[in-house]
Amino acid sequence: MFNLCESVFSRYLPKKLYHTIWLLRPFSIILLYILIGPVVNLPTTNPAAQVTFLPIVIMLLETSVYIAVMLMFKQQAYYFQSQLQAQKAELQMLKMQSNPHFLFNTLNLIASEVTLEPHKAKALIYDLSDLLRQTIELTKHQFVALEQELKLAELYLVLQQKRFADRLTFDLDCQSE
């Protein structure tokens, strides 16, 4: 019943109040008890011992514990979400810092090869465009398969190998599994 009510009310609530929809549950329990509580009256053997307040106290304590636990869960979720956003921002900043240097160096290499060896410069342009295309494609996804990451690393290393000629060699040894 509560889940149905929460889904119905969540449609009509403004976005600012959507994250507080869970408060509907304890307040609806209190409202139901206030409406139904007076109808149910347990017979007591001793009329002087009126213990009708005890269920109300228990219900209020349960509701308070529920609200406290839910607030802790919400706070943990916000904390972990903010940590994740901070790590994503840091990673994005690192990517933005490293890309221009690599791009400038590669473009300088292409510019120097255009007059000396035009075919090599053309191959470098194609390699650079493949690398940039692959990088743009991979940034659209939060998680990347290892195969795609290795292909990107290989494209990068091929460009670096052409830049440094005999000073850089590499060998990728990764099993297909």
From TrEMBL:
The keyword Nucleotidyltransferase does not apply. Keywords: Membrane, Transmembrane, Transmembrane helix. GO terms for cellular component: membrane. InterPro entries: Bact_2-comp_sensor_kinase (IPR050640), Sig_transdc_His_kin_internal (IPR010559). One of its GO terms (molecular function) is phosphorelay sensor kinase activity. Residues 89-168 form the Signal transduction histidine kinase internal region domain. The chain crosses the membrane at residues 21-40, 52-73. Pfam families: His_kinase (PF06580). Coiled coil: none annotated. PANTHER family: SENSOR HISTIDINE KINASE YPDA (PTHR34220). This is Signal transduction histidine kinase internal region domain-containing protein.
